Amino acid sequence: MWLAFSRPVWLLLLPAAAALLWHSGRASYADLGGARRWVAWGVRSIIVVALIFAISGVQLVRRSRDVTVVFALDSSYSVSPDEHARALDFVREAVRRRRAHDHAALVVFGREAMVESEDLRRPEDVQIASQPAPSHTDIGAAMRLALGLIPPESAGKIVLLSDGNENVGSAANEALAAQAGRVPVDVVPLRTRGVQDALVREVSLPSDAKQGEPFPLRVTLEATRPAEAALTIAADGRPVARRSVTLPAGTTSLKVPVSLSNTGFHRVDVLLESAGDECAANNRGQGFVRIKGKPRVLVLDSEPADARDLARGLGKQDIVVDVGGPAAMPTNAADVERYDSVILSNYPAYRMDNRQMAMLRDATRNLGVGLGMVGGELSFGAGGYYRTPIEEALPVDMDLRKHRVYPAAAVLLVIDTSGSMGMMEGGVEKIQLAAEAAELMELGVPGVLLFGLPASKDPLGSEDYDPQGIVQQGIRALKAAAPELVVITDVCMCEYTDHGHCGIIGPKPERCRGKGLPNGCLDNDTTLEYLARVAISHAEAGADIVAPSDMMDGRVGAIRAALDRAGYSCVAILSYAAKYASAFYGPFREAADSPPQFGDRQGYQMDVHNAREALREVELDIAEGADMVMVKPALSYLDIIRQVRDRFNRPLVAYNVSGEYSMVKAAAAAGWLDERRVALEVLTSIKRAGADAIITYWAKDAARWLAEATRRGVD
């Protein structure tokens, strides 16, 4: 009996723990004397060692003299009778030679796996009575069953006797399970039967088709040798098509047009007949199709006679129409599914209960049943449908308030949580984040993006990942004041490093990114480690989304992996995927005191002339795990926003940067333009280009302007 460790690397903590215990013991036990001091030190040491053993995966291993060998025998059709007999002889010989304290079991398999015997003591016990379906070979099921036959107190081994022609399940997955359980798998290869065989590999047909119209039935056939065959297609046991086919050796795909005249759900069988075929068990395939007749619509009206004109018009479009009053209202999902659409024509809400409303809503959302409503004094809001499940399903809002409609862009406020802003003056913070958060929620601004300006900077940007850093404090303050507010944090190092670059300056030129850096170069791989630490510190503080803006290669993948390992898989990543080396960043860099002290950022930010690179960067970040992607800046890159929106199915954020904002502010201050109109026009253009959300310094102003327009009822 001995100890084993599944994660032995953690045992390297033992020397450090011993040194720490010795040093701490000298100070902690100064007031204790004699035996009490040694007992206290011993208890603490036992606890520390136990913790290290626990994270190292300590296991108590006992040597077992018993070995259980499970033989898994392939009984599928591809194994010839001679090979099957040879395999049985192999098992008998193995049982004859087994040691007295060893155990043997036998599993036979084809399409399914079966236990033939759990205890083979003599060669005469090796007999086959089970008859698994020989048409398929599921090696994975056999290995899974064999693993279950090995007692936990016994060492185990699986001996697989098969030709390896697996066509069901996954032996590879079960082999991994065996490896994890330290159960070796030995293979005795059997020769594959050389026969003439033609089979139906796959049948594919659409789930729905129209009555009397041909629909494509796709059949995949296989043959071991060239052969002439007849293909018969039957619907519900009645032949509907037949054709002769010439099959080459290998795989053949056919598309056969089939039409059915009866509506409803039908089983379609495909039968392959070939002269000389030695295995008929695999000559059949099957599929299912639902045949729809003419479109069928249910029209419900409080006075059915009033709906006759609507029914007449639908009937002229070759639509079957059922007209009824409250008694015809469906009471279950099966009744609703009979119809392609339900129309409520001047039908009041009080004539159905909430369950029926929810049933119609769910049928529209989940089953594709259409739902329409025709106006009248008993329809829409006047009919009592305001804030009901029916309103949720209809593409209209029954709130009668008149308001101005703007593109539904989510505007995110950028707050500079600098060290100076967090200082106390007269006992009051310059920016009271709690009050700020309350105001944002009241205005309807859904979230904030936090940047930080630390009190001090160093080459490694250490305050960037400090749990008590300014951004980390800001996150906690905002979340305490407004838990519903979405907090996004910028993950970069330029505000925190004394050189102003977005990463760690390293000494190795071969790992360098960027140009014009006379004092060194950016160490991309080391920077990824620091960015991951920053992201984890933000997640620990309560951030909902982290937004890496550094433009290092591989940073999304590194941050995603680090967050997952730390247990923050629910924290999303908003990637600055297409961030250009723009001249529009100047005002922000001055405010954040983050211009590069030497060189520039053109080597790791994107060339303003290049559009195709933006699409490639977005594609790479999505592949690494980005939940959302960003284009920055926004106003001068509306074409990039449009291209990203058209090509990728990911939430798209656009950053309306400080230079774009400052130009309008300066022009408005000079009286050259109307700031409100121009700002809303700028934001609308970004939304129109395809952005789902906009990061802007106008967030609070825009929210107020839209609220004022709504109160005035401006169109």
Describe the overall structure.
The protein has 715 residues and is an alpha/beta fold. The protein folds into 5 domains: 2-59; 67-189, von Willebrand factor, type A domain (Rossmann fold, 3-Layer(aba) Sandwich); 198-292, Sandwich (Immunoglobulin-like); 296-393, 3-Layer(aba) Sandwich (Rossmann fold); 410-710, Aldolase class I (TIM Barrel), CATH 3.20.20. Helix content is 32%, strand content 26%. The protein is built from 19 helices and 32 strands. An 8-stranded parallel beta barrel has the order 20-23-24-28-29-30-31-32, surrounded by 8 helices. A 5-stranded mixed β-sheet has the order 5-4-3-6-7, with helices on both faces. Strands 9-15-14-11-12 form a 5-stranded mixed β-sheet, with no helix packed on it. α5 (171-180) links the parallel β6 and β7. The radius of gyration is 36 Å and the shape is flat.
